[in-house]
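For the sake of transparency, this paper describes our internal protein records without simplification. The record that follows is passed on verbatim for readers who wish to inspect the format:
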Amino acid sequence: MPDYRRYHVPGGTYFFTLVTHERRPILTTDLGRRCLREAFEEIQQRYSFDLFAVVLLPDHLHCVWRLPPGDCRYPLRWKRIKETFTERYLASGGTEGNVSRSRAKQGERGVWQRRYWEHTVRDEDDLSGCVNYIHWNPVKHGFVTAVRDYQWSSFKQFVAAGDYQIDWGSSGSADALPGAEWD
């Protein structure tokens, strides 16, 4: 069995990618957005964290979190968010993908991929690259041609705070955006 090691820095800043099971396009539906928002809000109340940046695409999401000083329990938070989302989504009429014997044996539903990708943010330059990647992602996937046109992203909050110009990312090429494209 693979050994999935995660790096835990108390009070750290982390970049995450989560993907739906079978890449089902459920996250930007009205039901998906509502259930995800409720799950985030509920878990943030129980286990505080700052949702620093986010983009929601039909079959995956990227986000950056900042955890409270002394706390590195992001796996607990993600487990609870995924559980809460799944319960509400299915109870509200959402459907799940195929559930393999392995998933059924472990009590897993067909809503999320089992794992998620995590990157511990090292410094301000790394944070900037992560946030650029998040905001550029809808352009990368062809949902819009300009970052400002995507509605399920924290980009406009960053514009309002003066961190970006509204036309950032409108050049049509990730090559012009430092940190926007990872290999």
In short: The first strand starts at residue 13 and ends at 19. The mean pLDDT is 92. The domain at 123-183 is CATH 3.30.70.1290 (Alpha-Beta Plaits).
